[in-house]
Design a protein that fits this description.
The chain is an alpha/beta fold and about 230 residues long. It is built from eight helices and eleven strands. The protein folds into two domains: about 120 residues, Rossmann fold; about 90 residues, Winged helix-like DNA-binding domain superfamily/Winged helix DNA-binding domain (Arc Repressor Mutant, subunit A, Orthogonal Bundle). Helix 1 crosses helix 5.
């Protein structure tokens, strides 16, 4: 089965050229030219990686990336027409997997897509032995065959920490990713959700801690040594 690439780009000719080269390399593609149509499509269709332009009508790529990261580990390659934009994107810590600056060659797009997929698939394979399965489409989490009874917020926290395992997330980063409607929440709100999440995980892993507190900073996901 071919891997599917979602191309989000309002310059149709550019999107079509990228699509043609990806098709020649054995991928399936789908093109969306309006930012407002991206999130509903992702939630209702399977896709393996997304090429996401920043400047889009309807909803820009940065907001799309933030929203996707709140419910899915989908690999994302951001596309920008300005080289200086990359530094700002890195500062935002959006959680995207790579960046491409326009103008670019279609061959570079194919190479970047393949490189990101190799990297993310290798990561997924390396953690599959832990018997942790996260289904972002249904907000379901299983550990050792035991399904956890998580709320949507608890799942999003678990998913974010799990996908960035080993990385330390501050409470502010977690709040920004989980509460995308800009509501005002305190650090204690995240602490409370983490406490509940740990209790759920303990039902499946009673003798292991995988959500770790980092004093004065935040939290990280880390499996115990084999």
């Amino acid at each position: 089965m071919s891997l599917k690439v979602l191309i989000v780009e309002d310059e149709i000719k550019l999107a079509q050229v990228s699509s043609d080269y990806l098709l020649q390399s054995g991928f399936e593609t789908h093109i969306i030219d309006n930012g407002l149509h991206v999130l509903p499509w992702i939630k209702n269709n399977h896709v393996d990686i997304m090429l996401l332009d920043i400047m889009l009508p309807g909803l820009d790529g940065i907001e799309i990336c933030k929203s996707v990261r709140s419910f899915s580990p989908l690999p994302i390659i951001m596309v920008t027409a300005r080289v200086e934009e990359v530094d700002r994107l890195l500062g935002l810590e959006l959680g995207c997997d790579d960046y491409i600056c326009k103008p670019f060659s279609p061959r570079e797009v194919v190479a970047r897509v393949k490189a990101v997929l190799r990297r993310t698939q290798a990561q997924n394979n390396s953690v599959s032995d832990t018997a942790i399965i996260l289904d972002a489409a249904r907000f379901k989490a299983c550990i050792n065959g035991c399904e956890l009874d998580l709320t949507a917020v608890e799942f999003q926290l678990f998913n974010m920490l799990y996908q960035g395992q080993g990385r330390i997330y501050s409470r502010e980063q977690l709040m920004s990713a989980i509460y995308t409607d800009n509501r005002v929440v305190s650090d204690r709100t995240i602490d409370s959700h983490i406490k509940k999440l740990r209790k759920r995980i303990a039902q499946a892993l009673p003798d292991q801690e995988i959500i770790h507190s980092v004093y004065g900073v935040g939290y990280k996901f880390e499996l115990p040594p084999a």
